[in-house]
Structure formats: C-alpha cells, structure tokens
Specification:
The chain is mostly helical. Helix content is about 65%, strand content about 5%. It contains 11 helices and 2 strands, in the order H-H-H-H-H-E-E-H-H-H-H-H-H.
C-alpha cells in the first residue's frame, strides 16, 4: 500500500464542530475556507503547518495560504506569538474570534453577513478570488459606506467595464463628496442628471471623470 495513503488512513477522523458549520454557512465561506477552519479547530494547539495541512486535508498549498489570509482578513482567526510547554515562543493560531462570531449579537451578525456578501459579489463579477489586501480595502469601505452603496458602485463599475477596486473606490468617494449617504440619494442624483441632459439611461453619468 502507498505509504502516504497508509498514514492518511491511520489518522483520526476530524470532529466537525457545529459552530464551525454555522459560521461557514452564515458567512458563505468557500469549501477551502471551511476545511481549513475544521482542521484548525481539531488541533490542540493550532499552527499554520502548511505541509501537514496539505497532507491531511488534500488542499493545495496555494489554497491553504489563500484561505488562511482570507480568514485572517475577515477577523475569524488570528495569528499570535505565545510560549509553548517548554517556555519557548512560537506562532499559534487563535480561534477566539471564530467562537466570538457565534455568540455575537444579531445586529453584528447581519452586518458581517452583508460584508461577506459584498466579497462574494465582487469575486463573482471579477471572476477571481480576492487577495488579503483587497479584502482589507473592502473592509474599510464597509466601515465608511452603506453596504448597498458599495453594491451600487460595483454595478456602475461593471456597467462601465471597469472591474477594479480603484474604480469602485473612486465612485464611492465621488458620491461622498456629493453628500450621498444612501442608494436612494444616488438614484435621485441620477434622475436629476437624466432630466437635465434629456438622456434615458441613468447609468450614462460618469461619476469618476465628471467635470
């Protein structure tokens, strides 16, 4: 029998904790993200042991790293330096934030879900996954703008065939300068533009390069 297969079959099965499934479902995590959370939640002292994670989960190395960066950026897990049993410092992965996510109040939960929806929408429109830096940029948007405004800016970017975070951000700050605080404000502004310019298409207005 193949040695790798033999060692794999001898390993203990993972225990899939219900709170991990709850978080994965509510936040629409990818399969790779969920598998990594299950792996970490089964470790007595979770660490980012890439070689062992690849061996035991069948994920590829780039999938592990991408999911790890995404989960950190989302605030579900955290990398910390702690002393081990021998008194030596080492890097461990804290799941405290993941557990807190389960016990958080419903308002925060809804806000977090809306934020994840935005990640998923942008990934779908861009046709690729987001880097940890991009997740951080979107996270900052969510702190400053209404989630529906971000979705509207994404629609504008897609309509103008400008699928980039820089373009979306330019639209958001153009709206901010105009004092828009909701999608309703944006639509009112576009309707006024439509009346003034006698055009039928509300999305013809170029928020980024306006005079």
């Amino acid at each position: 029998m193949n040695e790798v297969v033999f060692k794999t079959l001898k390993q203990k099965d993972f225990i899939v904790k219900s709170f991990v499934l709850r978080v994965a479902t509510e936040l629409n995590l990818s399969l790779s993200d969920t598998i990594l959370l299950i792996y970490l939640s089964n470790q007595e002292v979770p660490t980012l042991d890439i070689e062992n994670i690849v061996l035991t989960t069948y994920l590829k190395q780039d999938q592990v790293l991408e999911s790890f960066q995404k989960l950190v950026a989302m605030g579900l897990i955290e990398s910390k330096v702690e002393k081990n049993a021998d008194g030596k410092l080492g890097e461990v992965i804290s799941l405290d934030n993941l557990i807190k996510n389960v016990t958080q109040d419903i308002t925060t939960g809804i806000k977090k879900k809306s934020q994840i929806d935005i990640y998923n929408l942008i990934e779908e429109e861009f046709g690729r996954g987001l880097s940890s830096i991009e997740v951080g940029i979107i996270d900052n948007w969510c702190k400053e703008f209404d989630p529906e405004m971000i979705k509207e800016a994404l629609r504008e970017a897609v309509y103008n065939n400008a699928k980039s975070l820089k373009y979306i951000e330019s639209i958001l700050f153009a709206w901010k300068e105009k004092g828009y605080k909701s999608v309703n404000d944006i639509h009112k502004g576009m309707i006024e533009y439509s009346k003034d310019s006698n055009t039928k298409d509300l999305y013809d207005y170029n928020w980024v390069d306006e005079d």
